[in-house]
Records
---
Amino acid sequence: MSDYDLAVIGAGVVGVSTALWAAMRGHRVVLIDPAAPGSGTSSGNACTIATYACLPVNDPSVLSGLPGLLLGSNTPLSVSWGHALRHPLWMLRFLANCRAKPSSRIAAALAGVLAHADAGLNPLIEAAGAGDLVVARGQISVWSTRAGGQGAEAGLIRRRDLGVNWQEMTPEQAQEAEPGLRLSIARAVHFPDARHIRDPEALVGRFHAAFLAQGGAHLSQRVLSVAQQGERVVISTDADAVTARRAVVAAGAFSGRITGSGAENLPLGTERGYHLMFPGEAARVTRPVGWGEGGFYAVPMARGLRLAGTVEIAGLDAPANAGRLAYLKRRGQEMLGPLPDPDSSWLGFRPTLPDSLPAIGFAPGSDRILHAFGHQHLGLTLGGITGRIITDLAEGRQPNQDIAAFDPGRAFS
Ligand SMILES: Cc1cc2nc3c(=O)[nH]c(=O)nc-3n(C[C@H](O)[C@H](O)[C@H](O)COP(=O)(O)OP(=O)(O)OC[C@H]3O[C@@H](n4cnc5c(N)ncnc54)[C@H](O)[C@@H]3O)c2cc1C
């Protein structure tokens, strides 16, 4: 049974970023995950360092538009009714957080942590020599209907009030910036401070290599449970047991399956999302372009074009929904014109608490077990800063930002 300063459970972008931060600060760290680093939800996302994305899915417009969103077949949101009925509390809390007051509170908390996202990520990019994977061309959001563009106004104003930098583009400017768009553009907005990653799985792989180079250890085992015993945490896996002074649960949407961690008592759900990959088609766009009405992004990547997004409320074990992939292909062609057959499709699991805020901090009742999950649509963006905050907490230091909103022991609605 080896003994470490810190054990990090889960090698997604959040876990690997945490492990690298802690190793860079000189701690003896073990990362535990049976899967390859960054191969889970962290691999298939829309690649965007979305520092502008402080508005949660919990938005008052969700309540007013709910019937249309749920009953239409051509919408970016789909709900498994069986799943919703089995988990009514998560759904009710999620909807309760769509009311104006909680939605504003959530947006302010997200804006607060997003303001530190680059400061958490950039040192890792530098330590990992991964600058070649990062592209700084901003992000463009387009709406193809007048109603959609007008509907976005309130949210854009809220973002500006929260310090997000965005610039209105004329439809002509947007078309000139992204000539591959085949939509009729009613409104376009540029977020110049956003960046994107040419291959998020490769980014996490580079962070992982830097972690090993710093002397970090990796155990390819599945964690079953954790237990605090005095000044140590015992982490039991399917093959072994490891002890550490502190343990971090960073297993994304699967965190609640690790018993004894406190995560099993939190209302962690998942917003499932999909992507399609089109090799050789990366030049269709020059930066991530989000289509408001479509609910997805077109992203130029190292190995092709990725269409990624949509939200499906369903369980972790339900099979992929072919209808959602057909939606992406159909709407992708509306956005970009005819596309060849994709070479691959993917389903991923955004870890989402009902208030769309991550859990970052000590597990309720523990001074040894930390939680670092629930990053919903923003894990790639917030992995770095989460790692820095968790390392501060593990060292007994006060993070240089207010993290009260992310307390795992908070009320969720
Ligand atoms: C379609 C889509 C688009 C997205 N676009 C963006 C975007 O553009 N920008 C952005 O910032 N975010 C985006 N996201 C969100 C982002 O991808 C996630 O928030 C992020 O990947 C979550 O990272 P994670 O490390 O928490 O979880 P994961 O990447 O899921 O990693 C969890 C790890 O834990 C491991 N694990 C699970 N159980 C155990 C166990 N018992 N023992 C040990 N290990 C275990 C898994 O094997 C996995 O490696 C998107 C998500 C989706 C689905």
Note: Residues 65-97+132-194+268-352 form a domain with the D-Amino Acid Oxidase; Chain A, domain 2 fold (CATH 3.30.9.10).
---
Amino acid sequence: MTQSKVCAFGDDPMVVRHTFAQFPSGVAVLAVDIGGEKHALVASSFMVGVSLEPCLVAVAVQKSSETWGAIKDADSLGVSIFGKDQGDLLRKLASKDRAARFEQVVIEVRDEGAVYIDDAALWLECSIHEVSEAGDHWLALLEVKQLGVGENEPLVWHGAKFRELVDAESVGVK
Ligand SMILES: Cc1cc2nc3c(=O)[nH]c(=O)nc-3n(C[C@H](O)[C@H](O)[C@H](O)COP(=O)(O)O)c2cc1C
């Protein structure tokens, strides 16, 4: 008998977290300035290409997120995808001390309130298209209004570590 590749995970969330951590992703920060107060929500659940016409991306946000409560009605959200050397910045923008998140962080604030971090891999200006319930998260569809690509390569989040992209065909080839 062949051994099964899958097994029941019961009610152990750590098994689920550990398994999902093997799925690599980029990490986004949704950022906005509302009346001079800046908010940042770091999310690895960010997903591009949900739809091309209209241009939609998605993010899953924990229902417990205080930042989401503050930004969910914003007209415009800045989305920056962290670059390969921005792990420390990511940690800062995701820190528990919400008031300190933007201390000494180089940003650009646009008139409509969208906030972008410097040296990101790419930037999107989005509006909130639709929000639906997804278990213990909100699933937010964002409509992309403007976009741009930076010169920094993206940081990769995998196995609870920050990693960098490597060209597979160049590995081991002399
Ligand atoms: C690498 C990384 C990825 C994260 N991904 C998500 C995510 O996809 N969705 C989410 O709601 N929170 C995510 N978080 C947690 C949030 O960034 C934030 O810490 C949390 O929402 C609590 O802060 P808040 O109450 O200000 O929202 C992530 C944190 C880190 C460090």
Note: The first strand starts at residue 28 and ends at 34.
---
Amino acid sequence: MKKIVIVGGGAGGLELATRLGQKLGKYGLAEVTLIDRNRTHLWKPLLHEVVSGSLDTGLEAISYRAHSSENHYYFRMGSLCGLDKEKRQLILAPLEDHHGKQILQQRFIDYDYLVLAIGASSNDFGNASVHEHCYRLDSAQEAEDFHLTFLNRFMQYSEENCLNMDPETPCENTSEDLSDTVTISIVGAGATGVELAAELYQAVDQLERFGIREIHHSSLEVNLIEAADRILPALSESVSGKAAQTLEEQGVKILCNTMVQEVHANSLQTSSGEIHSDLIVWAAGIKAAEFLSRLGLQTNRIHQVEIEATLLAKGEERIFAIGDCCSFTPEGAQRPVPPTAQAAHQMAKLCADNLIAIVKRKPLQTFEYYDHGTLVSLGPFKTLGQLLNQMIKRKWQVEGKLAYWLYASLYRQHQLALYGGRKFFWIWLSSLLEKRIKPKLKLY
Ligand SMILES: Cc1cc2nc3c(=O)[nH]c(=O)nc-3n(C[C@H](O)[C@H](O)[C@H](O)COP(=O)(O)OP(=O)(O)OC[C@H]3O[C@@H](n4cnc5c(N)ncnc54)[C@H](O)[C@@H]3O)c2cc1C
């Protein structure tokens, strides 16, 4: 029986493992194994909601172990660190527990076909000060860490500004009297930075509603710093202009044409001068894991594996790569397929079809990317973006409730791919009920 190993259970890898488990594993046609360095999966586009506290990872994350047992694939926890192409073995680093104690030694896993789906992380462009002083949204742990720091900073702010500590007596300060604001700088005004900026203001509004004393909308100052001449440079000028207007109405300070040169603990040195900041989030560009360039595969300058239209790594017959960790430029296109959940989803689908074709000795198909457009959430019912009709190759702008429902449907599609129709229905229903009974903000 063929051994298919998928490394990385993210937006692409988990959908692929589910599909292969259902189509091959269930019928004993192949042994499908998913490897991930974490125990649970959280769809990455939800991370900015984890930061603001509007999403609780405990409720939303999926246990790989439980999911694998229901979908006929095996799950092994581990972190890929090397590859022996001759022996068709991948190498997993020794596994440590949460105290740093080694619980498993280095392991070697055999494969007949390997799929790399390990995603990418934010690109610090080799600037060591970014690594030292910035928060990044590359994993649920990092997003939760930032969320706690955010809550703690506002707790400090509330205590510092509330002169009267008697809970029975209201504070006498007005927002104008308050000594300072909490300043958060976000570097990079792509979709991630823009959505995070909007989410943070919503979180502060919620803190105010929960009665945390002396917290007002104006207690937060967000600087959104972008090297290009406008925010959301990948979208049309009109979408970018509308998003900028919505953010500025919230209070976001947008600084375009601004290059960050150096980051310090509480400030950023930029091409337009120094900016004080209590917290700094880095959301500028992506890069794949550096070790990918040492595996003997063809990679580009940001370490993404170069792939053919069949999704096989260039020059390889048994190694596929999908999602953010690979680079593919369709014939005639000027730019590679963008690193989005939408692309990872489409690649996962074709990769599953091609692996099934291999098992059934049929020819491989080639990947065609369908760009359905981009939507950016700037708060409930403040979603906007542009959709692309592939048939007539025309873009049109959407906003308001329609855009909000389309945006929410992206995650629902991912859930549908993972759970199938019946279970998805119950999950959707329970999330509606939870929204009604739980606080709108995770306060811990
Ligand atoms: C805050 C944020 C918001 C976003 N919003 C959107 C959006 O609205 N729409 C959109 O289309 N895209 C969005 N994206 C981009 C989207 O999340 C990614 O393009 C998508 O998740 C890529 O899928 P993937 O499967 O390639 O990688 P990922 O989803 O990143 O999954 C990678 C998996 O590999 C695992 N892994 C990593 N290294 C190893 C290793 N060495 N060994 C074992 N396992 C490993 C990780 O634990 C993870 O489970 C957003 C990204 C971020 C960060």
Note: The chain has three domains: 2-120+288-370, 128-161+175-282, 375-437.
